[in-house]
Amino acid sequence: MKVAVLCRTLGKHCGISEYALCLGEWLNAVVVSSAADVPPDIDITFIQYEPTLYDGLVSTLIDEIRHLPSIVVVDIHTELPSDIVQTLVLVAEEWPKALIPAVKLNPRHGMWYLPHVNYPEPDLPDVKPTKLKLGSFGLAYPNKRYEEIFRLAWRLKVPTIVLAAEGNATSEIAMLSAEYIHFLQEIRPPNVELDTNFYTRTEIISVLRSCSHLICAMEDLGRISGSLRLMALAHRPIISLPCTGASEVGAITVPSLRTITKKWLIAQTQLSTVEDGIYQYHRLLKELFK
Asked: Which residues in 65-208 belong to E strands, given as ranges?
């Protein structure tokens, strides 16, 4: 079978775009940014759907589906309102071609479950640092709360690096991210390096492996975190405020970063692990083409 992965933010600084590229690697698929770019001989197309990238309108998604020549799987990254879910299920029942809504959270009747796939393990040397150094990674959005990590680094007097590139999936997101970066630059302590360059996955993991411990302070948005999954591949203890993403990777959780001391950090050696998640994709493909 021939597979396509459709992501309208392809090539932008966007977690969904990075996920689409990763999924394309796992499925040996062509990855495109519009329905018009899907080759006519494709058997199945996985649309990477996140409401903010479609202005929140399911009608925009349905218009996109109508231009596809293949079986369609709507690969939904965010928990959706029940009315949108019901619309998708109804459209799927009446669609002349196979249309499969698939969710990554809270599986339900009429929808397939497709968990997040993990990023491939990089072929990198892994020399563990001998001194404390903190690190964190993720696109620069206010919900990441990097200012909390800044406070922790300043209190502990520990060198810290935060990789926080500007997100630009949409113009509104780009403005929000740029404003947040400006705020972080204004309050950054001298022992913290704020790196806003957009790196490859291998480059990110290489930087994170220079750290002894990784820190996550983001809000719990009730969703799995691509940045935490990537941080787990650095094979360093991840210390996190409680959130869905931290639970998924088995991070060490604390109620507040204020409880962290140097002595406590040195004692933390537990590493995170994540499933590769590709099994359910392969299972769906077998069901469709058996």
From this structure: 71-76, 99-103, 112-113, 134-137, 160-163, 192-195
Q: In what order do the strands lie in the sheet with 213-216?
A: 192-195, 160-163, 134-137, 213-216, 238-240, 252-253
pLDDT at 290: 74
Other C-beta atoms closer than 10 Å to the C-beta of 255 total 8
Q: Are 137 and 208 in contact (CB under 8 A)?
A: yes
SS3 252: strand
Measured between its terminal Cα atoms, the distance across the chain in Å is 11
Residue 212: C-alpha distances to residues 20, 127, 159 (Å)? 30, 10, 10
Burial label for 207, CB within 10 Å (0-12, 13-18, 19+), is: middle
Residue 31, pLDDT score: 97
Select from 32, 89, 28 the least CA-distant residue to 285. Answer: 28
* pTM, rounded to two decimals: 0.90
- 66/89 Cα distance (integer angstroms): 15
Cα-based distances in Å from 190 to 111, 148, 194, 205, 232: 50, 15, 10, 23, 27
Q: Among candidates 156, 229, 222, 150, which has minimal Cα distance to 192?
A: 150
Could you give all domains of the chain from N- to C-terminal order, each with its CATH number?
A: 3-117+277-289 (3.40.50), 134-267 (3.40.50.2000)
Distance of alpha carbon 100 from its chain centroid, rounded?
Answer: 22
How far is the C-alpha of 6 from the C-alpha of 148, rounded, in Å? 36
Which residue has better confidence, 109 or 249? 249
Q: Are 41 and 2 in contact (CB under 8 A)?
A: yes
User: Greatest CA span in the chain, whole angstroms?
Assistant: 63
